[in-house]
Amino acid sequence: MASSIEQLKVCLVGSGNWGSAVAKIIGNNVTRLEGFSRDVTMYVYEEIVDGEKLSEVINSRHENVKYLPGIKLPTNVRAEPDLVSSASNADILVFVVPHQFVPGICAKLKGSIKPGAVGVSLIKGLDANVGGKLELVSETIASSLQIPMSVLMGANIATEVAQECHCEATLGCKNSAQGSMLKRIFSTDYFKIEVVDDLEAVEMCGALKNVVACAAGFADGMDLGSNTKAAIIRIGLVEMMSIIKSLFPDSKKKTYFQSCGVADLITTCFGGRNRRISEAFVRTGKSLAVLEAEMLNGQKLQGPATAQLIYKILEKEAFKIEVPLFVKVYQICFEGISPRSLLEIFSIVSNL
Amino acid sequence: MASSIEQLKVCLVGSGNWGSAVAKIIGNNVTRLEGFSRDVTMYVYEEIVDGEKLSEVINSRHENVKYLPGIKLPTNVRAEPDLVSSASNADILVFVVPHQFVPGICAKLKGSIKPGAVGVSLIKGLDANVGGKLELVSETIASSLQIPMSVLMGANIATEVAQECHCEATLGCKNSAQGSMLKRIFSTDYFKIEVVDDLEAVEMCGALKNVVACAAGFADGMDLGSNTKAAIIRIGLVEMMSIIKSLFPDSKKKTYFQSCGVADLITTCFGGRNRRISEAFVRTGKSLAVLEAEMLNGQKLQGPATAQLIYKILEKEAFKIEVPLFVKVYQICFEGISPRSLLEIFSIVSNL
């Protein structure tokens, strides 16, 4: 697929914490791999940092001083504040922006994408389309830009990946040649990629795990102990599977044993901002909005919004499946019920 | 199955931390359930605690002051230092002793078991039989005492169960009527039991997770970060599945989504003594034997011995399956290789 004549060009659409960590990997890989252009562009939403433009700082110091300080980026990664120029001649578009920016970015890129380009989404989030049906971020991008999409998800705290801690990720891909090609630009000896053809389940895991992390955070806030927390994570995983199976009947159970499944769930339920804010929600009694503002420096929580979306979708479908944990997280976040009612998930199936 | 005439009698063979926590549950349950005798006996390996016999302390104060201090036991649980008298008229034998005591206990009980009695093992560990083949503790007991056996495993830190923290457990059972009956004596509103017919997988999970916990502890000791630890746990789970499948081809993937699978693995890899000692092994450079003596107050580590057993069994079978994590844990514990070599599991499947 990748010959030395083709010289596939990569553009990263996004340059936050995770985008910058991935830029380091891809920038290094294209230098040593055949078939790829050495020039990698990274779209930077321009902002002023200490009186300088962030894109210029990145290009002169080869470091994203705002979102990934302390990590040198390869010199062949060029920050570009103009979205269309960064992306228009790319063969591979790596989408890694907060999911609420996706529609705006797609609207700007529409009509400017190189024919034959492919995309891969690293974005964790879900949306509803105008009909109120769930829409994956990869679907939003694919239908807007008319490009085939893959997704990359896994237990990947960005800073640790940037520091070259060993880890894994799952590439969900509908086309195996595309999967092999994308695997090459992401793989390193410390970042191990497994390709699976179960795209929707991979992407859904990336979004749904944040709801389980909220439940885990509530448990931590109530000091429920490690048995209860492990049970909550397990029940959350089973509910994730049940939601995914009901929305994507062809999804496969083995996908949950990939990095995007159990591994990402574990990291998110022990670290992760959804867990952290949810714990603080119980301990402080402050609202999620206040805690978001106080603790996340402008970033947004994904868990509560995802719980709400799933709740509304399931409500439409008259709750054909039972997902008490997901319902409780929604109700605790949006309907003011007590976090302690989370424990009711243990009595929903009677024991005796 | 349980009529008010039959009055099934329960005996706990064992009275440690977990045995005492379970005695509390069963003691309370038989009082309110029909079909069970109120009298529960608990075999206590007699020892002197502060000048008094432990069995007498338990029977007068209704508290196992040595192994589960601070928790009141139901008054209908009677401690009994004589193994044969404690067990001989029981219809249900709940085995909950350290696994190295099983052969001795079975030898003493042989010939003294009530006809028709059934057993359930809460013991986590594995052994090899005389032919060097793996033998489950439930198999050892079943073949020695000629009684049908079930197993109960799950994410159950004893003290938290005794404090009535909500959690779950998995009952592995070959006979569904027996499963329903046993479920009744263990279930409470805070301790939720799921019955599965995949006994061997349930029991194997309980033993093998300790090997993964050693790897997780090594990772903690090397400060490898949360991505790496999550990846290690995931790889460990997949290797557990692969070992279990190769030894028990009829085992089912869905069992790993039960408490005995992912949930127990999570608790053990974040809490648990195998993880703790393995972390100390890396940080202090002391031997496992020294750390065991210093940190475990006479208890034994299960993880290293289980890794060794699995290693030997697989060696015999000429390593038909690849379980690099299990092999590394064995080699780190017994062959003096560096804990850092654990990271080689990430390069065993080549990426590019």
UniProtKB/TrEMBL annotation, chains A, B:
Biological process (GO), any one: carbohydrate metabolic process
Glycerol-3-phosphate dehydrogenase NAD-dependent C-terminal domain sequence ranges: 198-343
UniProt EC number: 1.1.1.8
Catalytic-site annotation from UniProt: 209
Domain spans labelled Glycerol-3-phosphate dehydrogenase NAD-dependent N-terminal: 9-177
Keyword Ligase: no
Pfam families (alphabetical): NAD_Gly3P_dh_C, NAD_Gly3P_dh_N
GO molecular function, one term: glycerol-3-phosphate dehydrogenase (NAD+) activity
Positions with a binding annotation for substrate: 124, 273-274
Protein name (record): Glycerol-3-phosphate dehydrogenase [NAD(+)]
Lineage of source species: Eukaryota, Metazoa, Porifera, Hexactinellida, Hexasterophora
